[in-house]
Amino acid sequence: MSSTKIPIYRPVLGQEEIELLTQCVLDEWLSGGKKLKEFEAKMAQLCGVEYAMGCNNGTVALYLGLLALGVGHGDEVIVPDFTFVASANAVALTGATPVLVDVDHLTNNISPAKVEMEITKRTKAIMPVHIYGRAADMDRMLETGRREGVAIIEDACQGMGVTHKGTPVGGIGDVGCLSFYADKTITTGEGGMVLTNSASIIRACTVLSNQGRTGRGWYIHDEMGYNFRMTDMQAAVGLAQLQRLEWIVGRKQTHESHYRQLLEGTSDMQEVVGDAVGDAGVVPFRHNIFVGDPEGLIAYLAEDNIDAKRVFYPLHRQPCYKHLDLRDADFPHTIWAYDHGVSLPSSPLLTDAEIERVCLRVRAFCKGGSK
Fold this sequence. Notes:
371 residues, transaminase activity, PyrdxlP-dep_Trfase, PyrdxlP-dep_Trfase_small, 11 helices, 2 domains, 14% strand, Aspartate Aminotransferase, domain 2, globular, DegT/DnrJ/EryC1/StrS family aminotransferase, seven-stranded mixed beta sheet, alpha/beta, pyridoxal phosphate binding
C-alpha cells in the first residue's frame, strides 16, 4: 500500500481565507453584516440574477425557495430519483409530496419525458437537479413549466460554475439554490444561497430566514420564521473562495479531461460524457465511472490508500421514503447508475501523478487497456 493517501476531496483553503476571517474577528462582527451583503451581491452578479440571499445550508435554501413559491400540504413537486436525499427532504418538509421520476440514461439528469408523464393538478413545481455538475435540460424544463403553469426550482447545489448554453445554472428557473458545503466547488464550511429575479420571492425567503421580521423592529415579528441566516464569518470564507473560483473550475475541468484520456479504452467501464444539451459548461462535482463491481473497485483502490465511494442511493429505495411504495421497475436508469457508479477523487488539488495512480489502479482492476 502507498503511504500517501489520496482523499475523495480536499477543499482549497489558504491565506486569503485566514485574512478575511481574521478581519471579522478584529471588526468584532461575526453574524451577518457587511461581508454577507458583499458576498450576496457578488453571487447575484456571478449567477446573473437580481437577488441572492445567503442561508446556513443548501437544504435550507431549497426549503425556503419552495415555501416562497407557495409549496405546501397537498402539493406535489417532481424530483429526480437520482440525487442527494436533501432534494426530496426539502419538499417533504413543506408538507408537499416529492414525486420521484427516473433519469436520462446518458446524463443521469432528470428525464424531461418522465417529468411530463407525472404532471397532475397537484403539481406545484419541478425540481431539476444539475447532477454531479452537469446541467439538466433547462429548455425542456422551462417549456414544461410554462405550458403546465408550474414553477421551476433549480437544485444547483452541485452546480457552482456550471452553465447551460452559456447561462449559469441556478439563475434560469424561478428559484435557484446553491450549497457551499466543504466538498462543493467553493465552500463556506456550511452554507447555502437562494437565487431569483423575483422581489417577492426574495422578500419571503428573507422574512422566513430572519425569524419572521419584516423590518418594523428587531423584536417585531409579523410572521413565524426561522433562524436560517448566514454569518459574516461564512461569507468571509466565501469571498476568499470567489477569488479562486476561476482556478478551481479550470482545475476540475482539466482533471476531468485527464481522467477521461487515461481511462479511455478500459474494459468493463463507462463514463458520463457531456450534459443534456451537449454544452461545454460542465464543472464536475465528482469524477464518476461505472463498472461491473463498484464495491470491489472501491476495496481495490483502498488497498493503495485511494478513497472512492458509491454514487447516490436511489431515493425510492431510501428507508425514509418507503411509504411512497414505489417500484424498482419504474427507475431502471437510476438503479443502473447506482449499481455501477463509483466516485473517484476529485479535488482541485489533485496532481497529475495522483490521477495517474488512480487510473492505473482502475485499469488494473478492470483488466482493460495498457496497465
